[in-house]
């Protein structure tokens, strides 16, 4: 399936190709609504890692749950906050956390939609998914990111001076905002997150952001990418930039969906690691 809109695909956009055996054990943790019949998701083992669930104080009645993957090796490690798509923290997001942990990072994926009490990966109705996602306001999500940074800084296994953030689809926009409002964020990498509401705010960036976008993303037109590039230049944000993959659709990093483009996903990952390293998150 191709997600055509970064904040959630409309039913008319969809031509779903769900795996017939979607209830099988291997695929049970993936987003049912977006799992492609031909999916062969990357599976990163947890050996040499510590995997745990954290509860992060955020001022709410119930704390913010988060999936954490980190090296078993002692020491204070650099950190990446991993921001999910509209489907929540499912197996794709957890695997990304393990990929970072294998590289020596602490990876933290907060459950931004936890207040709804809904298991998003299990939903198949996009109207229901969008209903849950829309309940998470900008201020609430930005506050949860800052609460996550504060929690990270208090952990003995984390280097609180080296916090980066990356996010996909819905989470891509969260990355841009986090680099504007969270002073603990040192660098961000946004994968195909909505740009239109953020172009006018480019001057607010306090940390450099690398944007990774697809030229065939029907939900984020090239005009928006060009406008953000111009806004970054006008604001003097020379550390921030956008890499456009001409033939990539929305969701080109998502290895469990039909939108996956292996070459562009791998190139984007290399650029992500280089961006973090160049900006002190390594």
Characterization of this structure:
With 282 residues, this protein is of the alpha/beta class. It contains six helices and eight strands, in the order βββαβααβαββαβα. Strands 1-2-4-3-5-6-7-8 form an eight-stranded mixed beta sheet, with helices on both faces. Helix 3 packs across helix 4 (170-181). It is globular, with a radius of gyration of 17 Å. The protein starts with 48 loop residues before the first strand and ends with a helix. The relative contact order is 0.16. Residues 1-6 and 8-26 have low confidence and may be disordered.
The gist of it:
By secondary structure, this protein is an alpha/beta fold. The protein has six helices and eight strands. Helix 3 packs across helix 4 (170-181).
